[in-house]
Please model this.
Amino acid sequence: MAQHQMPRRHFLGTIGGIGAAGLGGATVGPVPGRPAGHGAGLPYPTLRRPFAMPGVKEQDWTGALFVGTGESRFALRVGLLTAQGKLLREKMTNYLWRIGPMTPDGAYKEVQVTTDDRTVMPAHLDALREVIAHPDQWSQSEVTDATAKLPQLQAKYDQLQSEKRAIRVRYARTGDGSGLVGSVTALEDDTTVVLELSSPWGEEASFALDDEAMTGSAPALLDTPHTGHLRLSPTEPADHSGTYASVADMTAAVTGGSGAPGTAVSALVYRLGKGRTISFAARVDDRPVEARRPEAHEVEHALDTAGAHVRGGNLTGSGPVGRAADAVRDALSLNTNYDRDRLRTFVMWGWGGGGGLFTGWDSAFDAVDAALVSRPLAVQHETDVFEAPAPPNQVPLQGPRYDQQNSGPMHAYAVWRLYTKFGDRSVLEKAYPALVTFHDLLPEWDADGDGLLETPYFGDRIGGRGNHLGLDDSPVYASYHRITKQGGSGDKRDNTDLTDVALNSYYALLAETLAKMAHVLGKPQDATRFAAQHTTIRRLLNDRLWHSEKGLYLSRYLDGTWNEVVTPTVFYPMFAGLATAERARTLVGRHLLNPEEFWGDHVVPSVARNDPAYCSGGPVHPASEHFRFFDRYGEGSAPEQWKGAVWPPMNATVYDGVKRYGFDDVAARFAARSTAMYLDAWDKENWFPESFDPEPGQSVMDSAVDTAWRTYSWSNAMPVQGLHELLSDNPWDGDPSALMFGTLALPGTNTLANVELRGHTYAVSAGPDRTTLVRDGRTVFRATGARVAVRNFVLRGPGATFDITADGPARVEVFAEHGGVRERKVPVGRTHVSL
Model:
């Protein structure tokens, strides 16, 4: 293509300064042109049009989305060519190398991708070497097999490394939010990258080349008189460019073949040496965008400035645990997606980064975690869940999936936590009717009519007998028996004979949460009904499912025999507020802290360590220097998922139960362990995986299990325990506007900053002898002389009320808004303070 010079103008004067205007921010109410039924009248934060945002389309980790007025839509992708001539352009989860820093509103994003999908890693080679080095621990066939496979695997690994290509991609949003600047830097020699403009979802759009730039136009989907226009202007000419009839044609053309010309997609191709950077600017508008070439140094300055501001206005932290705040912010920002039907953002739930919006329980954890990172994202995400259509072949209920009996209770809990964090009733009002319906359908799983629920029947297949709770293959459900269901909602699943501790804990949690919601929403009769329901379940569960000899809550068959498989669900009655104080002490002291069962550096395994099912699918080699256990050498899926793997939702549930019952020291130690496991995977591989390993030293890394799901959103429930330990809302008893902060046992000194709670922005620092709480830039609390954990903290007028637990004598100060300090000394232990 003939190259033409575009006029050079001052870049910042043309595009505008760095800003975050309108993206997940101040605009409130429905988007103009939004169809009826899409949240009309609901005061959730929305995205102004037009806007540009990096990412926010499923697994387009290197790309960006542009949306014009009336919803015209465009996608930018950055593709990478492998040494074998394959174009990596979407679904790039396995090629992610480094994530972040980035922000959830799209103001800045940075990722690195590589052609090495890490299917062969050094630890896989080490696993084979370990087998060969210790033949006495393995069968002769395993040693022979490892000896044969090692050179083959080594050769494959060496080839992958020698042919590896990698790039760094950066974006910053500019001006009023309708534009962005970006750059692509080659991290290896002989690197070919493709800048591609196309439609994000196969919608009508047309693309062209204009001198050295790419342009696009697309009709508005919700306001047909409007047409959106896009221009991408690079800072220097491409080595090759073209427009094509389809993505397939474009792919063929840039990989050495020929592609039919057309207007469906355009591409700029650059061949780069190591260290070379290509930069560009792009903007969406209601009119054709004027051709103006940016200066490369101005683009880089804008990117550097935006990157430097990431920590300044977003969740951040420091210290052994507090630094996880940056990882959680980046992970959830990466998994922020755009709902093209309901026109707002949500958190992708997993499956390698894909799967779209999921109304199962996964998304409830995502909402709780996202609330630490971004109020708009959390509120839009949970609103999306309750406006999603009912899944096929399920009870016609909007919102949580009725085929998972933990979905309704967990989404009720998530909605309640959005209220306790932000004080906004809108999501309560949106969710409450669906949750009441969900609750009132659940008695169809009470096979004997005694008030407690039995697990639904999911068949005798492997892979789903515990699906009602997301506990797929948990051995708890291995031996239930089918009972034909009489009546019910139309759900075709039968009953079983297993009265389920976990299911009844969720049932009680739902009733309790609905009672709190009803109180806030001015529904006193509902509040009384649901509170009574919680009381009834509490009495029945303690009467029938407490095994006094073992000191555990265990599931039980209808014939009275016990299901004696011990999993973390034995602690779920604490999460739901069902355990008596004495039984809670037994659960924690006798079982949770017992290293023969659950305790250790890597908690909590999905089956107790002394249960016969624990890690029962493969050999255990305590004498091995590197690998104590893995299913089969050379594999990354180490312990079978439900025979030991550590699941983030389980950990989060156990932590919340322990914290709820006031075991602050244990909760802190538990949170520290959960956070350390997450950070191990993040630091080494930049993964946030679906599950973790209870026996460190596997064939992938010390704690994370490498399934295909390296960017699984609920993984963030692990470090969020540590962040909640530092600063949290109060989701349980007492004033819902109260705060919890400080810690008795997190290692070192940790900080957390830029946390929004109830209309204020907070920061906290907690260490061995000083804890400080800052609100809106002003110190409001300080304790010196000991570690402290503070609950039920409410600032009122010139003072505050709170409960404080100290591990030694401490001096406490509360600072009034208009000057003045109130102080007192507190002893070891728990003290109620009013200053």
Residues 681 and 824 are 43 Å apart (CA to CA). Residues 1-44, 629-638, 699-708 have pLDDT under 50 and may be disordered. The longest helix spans residues 140-162.
